[in-house]
Amino acid sequence: LQAYERRFPTCPLIPMFVDSDIINEHKNEDGSIHVIERRCKLDIDAPRLLKKIAGVDYVYFIQKNSLNRRERTLHIEAHNETFSSRVIIKEHCSYTVHPDNEDWTCFEQSASLDIRSFFGFESTVEKIAMKQYTSSIKKGKEIIEYYLKQLEREGITFVPRWTPPDAHKVKCGTSQPRRPASPAINIPDSAAKETSGSKEIPNTSSSPSDATAETPDDKLDADYIKRYLGDLTPIQESCLIRLRQWLQETHKGKIPKDEHILRFLRARDFNIDKAREILCQSLTWRKQHQVDYILDTWNPPQVLQDYYAGGWHHHDKDGRPLYVLRLGQMDTKGLVRALGEEALLRYVLSINEEGLRRCEENTKVFGRPISSWTCLVDLEGLNMRHLWRPGVKALLRIIEVVEANYPETLGRLLILRAPRVFPVLWTLVSPFIDDNTRKKFLIYAGNDYQGPGGLLDYIDKEIIPDFLGGECMCEVPEGGLVPKSLYRTAEELENEDIRLWTETIYQSASVFKGAPHEVLIQIVDASSVITWDFDVCKGDIVFNIFHSKRAPQPPKKDSLGAHSITSPGGNNVQLIDKVWQLGRDYSMVESPLICKEGESVQGSHVTRWPGFYILQWKFHNMPACATTNLPRVDDVLASLQVSSHKCKVMYYTEVIGSEDFRGSMTSLESSHSGFSQLSAATTSSSQSHSSSMISR
Fold this sequence. Notes:
GO terms for molecular function: RIG-I binding. The chain is of the alpha+beta class.
């Protein structure tokens, strides 16, 4: 307890623990029970942009320490105060006396995490929370031992047990005055690290340092190492041999080559047990999905060949194969909607398998080991359409699969012409990327790649692609918008058992002439943010937002009634009563937005008042000719194409609470999705601004 209390009010060994204040303290009459409640200020290691979006620099936790000197127990309970309506974190720790040996202390710790919603960054927050918690567990023992040693240096080596007040007063180490926390010191990592010229001290069987003494069987041919594997220390060489021998003895099936085994060892700092675990998982995964035969048996769909803007392009100055990806010119949403997530994942796997094959070829051509490739990503044209949530989630899953099964294959990642929206995408994906991989990223904004330290440092001038100002013709597809006609319906995707994220977060609705579809959103706090994302799958519609102080009547259950229509293509719900009058019972808070068939629309609205907001998709009537009351011929033909005056939309809505949102609204303005340089017909709309005037 003496050592534990020295962690407060702040602990230099825990950098994220900034400060703490006692908000409540209680002692019973005899002093056997002491309860302290603190408010702790933490600086979480999270991306700066995520903090900006969340609107906080620090998060606060409430920690309650309950000490029972009579029972010799200390119970610690903690829960988050910040974002408690969105994220629920609970932690419980206990220190007790061992039942068989009173000189031993038992420690137990448990925690739970429940993320309800967090601005669409739920997976990112979960990664950050798990990373912080794992780090805290690893350092917990070191910190308590550090303060125990500090007490020993001060002469406090024994603290007598608590006795009731009528017994003699304690005059031991507990009477010593409290000293300020000493400055932070470097505590060595428990895992053994190999350094040049240093002695290895074996500590666990999984450490590379406990390799058996070198024998002729534990050596590889020096020329073979130099030619195919690169520089290896004797310990690293021994680890490779031992892991390969274990695979030969226990693994049934194809044994990977030394170069591939070495990738997994390097990914785990040559910890044999950890490398063996992830390698075995990967081998099982490869067998289940027939990845070894993907290049010979799987032909990418034509839509991928036409619209996936990526391909191999010569090699860099180090001899690594060069892969070029024009992400800014690629319609990620269209590809997901046309193919589904599984087809995209399989295509990325085929790219990685081709990369492994090219590394082997370049090793033979250049006469030196080449085990990784370079990726050049051009972000010219990247916009908010690329941040379509189902597409981002598909990207995160692809990253996880590649990180787990192709470690240490990325030698360098060159990100060129990064626009302002790039930090948003980086915030989403970076927590899923290994720290060693992130160190290989080089990011250039605008034309910085053309200056010193730019592209010419890594790629020969003769092979710089033409679209980057070079003279080499690049055969990578130019991408472009995937035609809506290639999109698959939810029914088709379900029948083919393709996992598409839109099946879970998007809803379908039918809109009829005289029967709009309406969604009710109740706002408790003013200045909340209502966001939407919808596609007009059929027909033309008008999108409206209304506000009312009173709740509309719930829709009737009668499927043939005026308030609710059920159809195979989606639901139709009407909330605004026929007797309601615009301007008296409800008001329009945004200008109507006309949306044509095939358009995708994303946007937001900042509420000014609490109450009930109604999002409405209404059938768009064709305007009559200006000089006559008769409809135009084109209008008649267009109306005939819409059977029974029916439209269809697929939509998703979300509300961001006012207490949590402090970010910029510019990224949430309503706009038609498109590419700035790909489609001249695609225009941005700003009919829904955060500054729009709202009438009651």
